[in-house]
Amino acid sequence: MKIELASSYGFCFGVKRAIKIAESAGNAATIGPLIHNNEEINRLAINFNVKTLNGINELSDERKAIIRTHGITKDDLAKLKQSSIDVIDATCPFVTKPQQICERMSEEGYDIVIFGDENHPEVKGVKSYSYGRVFVVLEENELDDIKLKQKVAVVSQTTRKVEKFMQIVNYLMLRVKEVRVFNTICNATFENQEAAKELSKRADIMIIIGGKNSSNTKQLYLISKNFCKDSYLIESEDEIDKEWFKNKELCGISAGASTPDWIIQKVVNKIEKI
User: Fold this and answer.
1) What is the per-residue pLDDT across 177-202, written as a single tens digit (0 to 9) for each?
2) Is 28 exposed, middle or buried (0-12, 13-18, 19+ CB in 10 A)?
3) Does the structure show a pLDDT above 90 at 161?
4) CA angle, 42 as apex, 39 and 46 as ends, to 5°?
5) Hey, which CATH number is domain 94-181, 3.40.50.720, 2.40.50.140, 3.40.640.10, 3.40.1010.20?
6) HEC string of 28-93?
7) Is the confidence at residue 61, as pLDDT, over 90?
8) Is the overall model pTM greater than 0.90, yes or no?
């Protein structure tokens, strides 16, 4: 059986940047998981004494607080900056962009439509920068019963599929006079998705590596599953089942944007042994 890695996979710019920031800070606490990868968060905790808090209410005697890659709400950030704690912002610049857009467009009187998961920390943060009406949707029909203004600005969660974003934009164009479209989908996300799609069309088994609470990793898995029915989402090599590989000829591998190379290599090593 051949093993082939996707042409684009793994750590994105924002995650690499956040990890470097956390390693340099040391002896700090992150507000929410820095990235959606438990193995890497454990490594930072053990090697750099970077602990993870669920929210700013859990801060006690910490001197340094790191803002996660997905960002936090505007109110929480303001409270942190008013305290005596040293605030280190590791928010991905691609996440900061839709925050700024929502703030500016709502100031100008636009309704805001965010394509994304309302419960995802990135979306919660982006939404908090809007002053006026803001609607978070995953499907265009969720807007059917909403009477929108004739001025709408639309952004996307950075890790969503561009095809679905275009469907929502098209829906709005047919119903609203003025639609301002901001493509805030991260290039790395798009490239990883296209690479997983291309490889899964040829492979007879796909292994997607990454956090099961990671939006972009789940998107990779769903894309792969669409073209290769024997697709599996795993967080580490411990989840691999050798039965998966019986009579397989090409094993494709991709990984989410929060998955470090050392985890990917462990998975590859275990599959090679099988």
Assistant:
1) 999 999 999 988 889 999 999 999 99
2) buried
3) no
4) 140
5) 3.40.1010.20
6) EEEECCCCCCHHHHHHHHHHHCEEEECCHHHCCCCCEEEECCCCCCHHHHHHHHHCCCEEEECCCH
7) no
8) no
Q: What angle do CA 157, 220, 244 make, to 5 degrees?
A: 155
Query: Which of the following CATH numbers is that of domain 13-91: 3.40.50.11270, 3.30.2350.10, 3.90.190.10, 1.20.1250.20?
Result: 3.40.50.11270
Q: Is 158 a known ligand-binding residue?
A: yes
Q: Any binding-site annotation on 70?
A: yes
Q: Which CATH architecture has domain 2-9+187-273?
A: 3-Layer(aba) Sandwich (3.40)
Instruction: Please indicate if the annotation marks 120 as binding a ligand.
Output: yes
pLDDT for 62 equals 87
Residues of the chain with CATH 3.40.1010.20: 2-9+187-273, 94-181
- Of 122, 140, 235, 237, the active-site residue reads 122
122 is catalytic: yes
Residue among 255, 195, 203, 256 at smallest CA distance from 229:
203
Backbone angles phi, psi at 139, to 5 degrees: -130, 145
